[in-house]
């Protein structure tokens, strides 16, 4: 199964992707995570991406598309994959179409998780992430047992560099301008499934299960 998770920053793409990984046993391919790993490792690509990410702007297409192309060729993607945060512009969706065509694959569903802006800001300003194992928490909605410490691996939780309110608003504006048109792109192909994303993570998960089926 090939899935795309689409939605504004803070919609819960990462949260729901992790649940789908467990259920469908497919890899999550998060371009945000891949880029943050490159920044942490101080690779040339990471250096180029960092300024854009910190400013809440999209990283240039050539970098992101090459990264996804390479990732999709890895063995664990053979049974399918869950794309989280890619594509993010029509140019990227067209590049993905070409990659899938070359691989002889198609998309099954594009899940658009929809959440009002005020809720997004609340979710992102309260987010805490574990840089060691990738677990995610929220100071109010999903607090760790011990403040600042990851429940899963004991790592020290961090606030992402781009989770400052000003940068969050910029990321949302970029989403509206460059990513939201993808809804029309996929709707016209009969692939778009709108998911109401304002409920609890479990409620959203149940809505997604109705679309992808329980594995
Ligand atoms: P990326 O890492 O993809 O960030 P994003 O799209 O802004 O999405 P987030 O990870 O912030 O949110 P999410 O929807 O995954 O929500 P989450 O589950 O974490 O990208 C970062 C940057 O990288 C971009 O700005 C760009 O610069 C660059 N980039 C990435 N991909 C690119 C591409 N394709 N092209 C170009 N540039 C690219 O949840 C958020 C919080 O809410 C958490 O605390 C969580 O616990 C909580 N939460 C989740 N669900 C719920 C719920 N139902 N109720 C209450 N709280 C909830």
Structural overview:
With 215 residues, the protein is of the alpha/beta class. It has helices spanning 13-24, 31-40, 44-54, 61-72, 90-103, 117-125, 165-179, 181-187, 201-212, and strands at 2-6, 28-30, 81-84, 109-114, 127-129, 136-138, 192-196. Strands 2-3-1-4-7 form a 5-stranded parallel β-sheet, with helices on both faces. The mean pLDDT is 95. Bound molecules: BIS(adenosine)-5'-pentaphosphate. BIS(adenosine)-5'-pentaphosphate is lined by residues 7, 9-15, 31-32, 35, 52-53, 56-59, 64, 85-86, 88, 92, 123-124, 127, 136-138, 141-142, 162, 171, 200-201, 204. BIS(adenosine)-5'-pentaphosphate (AP5) binds at residues 7, 9-15, 31-32, 35, 52-53, 56-59, 64, 85-86, 88, 92, 123-124, 127, 136-138, 141-142, 162, 171, 200-201, 204.
Outline of the structure:
Helices cover 47% and strands 13% of the residues. The protein is built from nine helices and seven strands.
Which helices and strands appear, and what pairs or packs with what?
Layout: E1 2-6, H1 13-24, E2 28-30, H2 31-40, H3 44-54, H4 61-72, E3 81-84, H5 90-103, E4 109-114, H6 117-125, E5 127-129, E6 136-138, H7 165-179, H8 181-187, E7 192-196, H9 201-212
Helix pairs in contact: 2-3, 4-5, 6-7
This protein binds BIS(adenosine)-5'-pentaphosphate.
The site of BIS(adenosine)-5'-pentaphosphate has 35 residues, from helix 1, helix 2, helix 3, helix 6 and strand 6.
Give the total of domains.
Answer: 1
**Measured distance between first and last alpha carbons:** 11 Å
Q: Based on CA inertia axes, which overall geometry fits?
A: globular
Q: Which ions and ligands are bound to the chains? A: BIS(adenosine)-5'-pentaphosphate
Mean pLDDT: 95
Give a count of the beta strands, DSSP E runs of length 2 or more: 7
Could you give the order of the helices and strands? Answer: EHEHHHEHEHEEHHEH
Which CATH top level class fits? Alpha Beta
Instruction: Report the sheet-strand fraction.
Output: 5-15%
Poorly predicted residue ranges: none
State the CATH architecture.
3-Layer(aba) Sandwich
Corresponding CATH superfamily: P-loop containing nucleotide triphosphate hydrolases
How large, in whole angstroms, is the Cα Rg? 16 Å
Helix content: 40-55%
How many alpha or pi helices?
9
Structural class: alpha/beta
Q: How is the main sheet built?
A: 5 strands, parallel
């Amino acid at each position: 199964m090939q899935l795309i998770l689409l939605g504004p920053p803070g919609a819960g793409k990462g949260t729901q992707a992790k649940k789908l990984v467990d259920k469908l046993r497919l890899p999550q391919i998060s371009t945000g995570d891949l880029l943050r790993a490159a920044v942490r490792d101080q690779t040339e690509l990471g250096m180029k991406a960092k300024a854009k990410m910190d400013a809440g702007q999209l990283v240039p297409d050539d970098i992101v598309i090459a990264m996804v192309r390479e990732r999709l060729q890895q063995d664990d993607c053979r049974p399918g994959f869950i794309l989280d945060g890619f594509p993010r512009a029509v140019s990227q969706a067209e590049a993905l179409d070409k990659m899938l065509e070359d691989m002889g694959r198609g998309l099954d569903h594009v899940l658009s998780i929809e959440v009002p802006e005020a809720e997004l800001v609340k979710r992102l300003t309260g987010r805490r992430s574990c840089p060691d194992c990738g677990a995610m928490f929220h100071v109010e909605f999903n607090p760790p047992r011990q403040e600042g410490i990851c429940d899963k691996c004991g790592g020290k939780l961090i606030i992402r560099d781009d989770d400052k309110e000003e940068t969050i608003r910029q990321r949302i504006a970029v989403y509206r301008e460059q990513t939201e048109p993808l809804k029309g792109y996929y709707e016209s192909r009969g692939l778009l499934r709108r998911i109401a994303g304002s409920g609890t993570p479990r409620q959203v998960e149940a809505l997604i299960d109705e679309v992808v089926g329980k594995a």
